[in-house]
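Our consortium's second objective concerns turning raw sequence data into structural hypotheses that experimental partners can test. To show how far this objective has progressed, the report includes one record in full. It was chosen at random from the queue rather than selected for favorable results. The single chain below, 194 residues long, was entered without modification.
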Amino acid sequence: MRFQKIKMQGLAKAERHHRNRDKLKHREHPENANQNRYFHRENKTLNQLCKEIKKEQEKRTGRKVRKDANICIEFVFTFSHYKNPDAEIKEDSEFMKAFSKDKNLQNEWIDANKAFLKKHFGLKNVLKFCIEFDEATPHIHAFICPKDEKGNINFKSYVSNKHDIERMQDSYFDFMKKFQLERGIRKDISKAFH
């Protein structure tokens, strides 16, 4: 799991990834494009949804939303690389072979990711949910509007420091254990940079 904060001016770029599939450099499995699924709230673009949320908040509070506000958060949920690194000939791992054919396993994985989002953000804050099987690894993009309990855009109400991020990674790992995924080494141990 990784996430990236997006400001209003970055929304269009984030959405282009899902529209221009033929131009993606990591699109190794175009034959799986028919398995991709996209869910948009109210069939509107991210830009339209975020503008409406922003206007609603400004009308309700009587204060402008800052221009540099993180109005949307993009989460990417994915497996490690599709290929087995120990094999002499780079081939799909046994789990990935099973996963690519087993619709029930795929649906369980999708449901586990939805459950994680529901626990941490509430499904009402999910603006767009994209499931993509045509790139190097199956993955999900989820776009969240980080609203606090008052209904205001406020990412810090979810993540205010690096320990909150670590706890979120630990929580995601708990949701993913049954899919044979391993939690990466904690940053306080490895000092690695993504």
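The partners drew two points from this record. The beta strands are 2-6, 37-40, 72-78, 126-132, 139-144. The CA atoms of residues 56 and 150 lie 13 Å apart. Both points have been shared with the crystallography group to help prioritize constructs.
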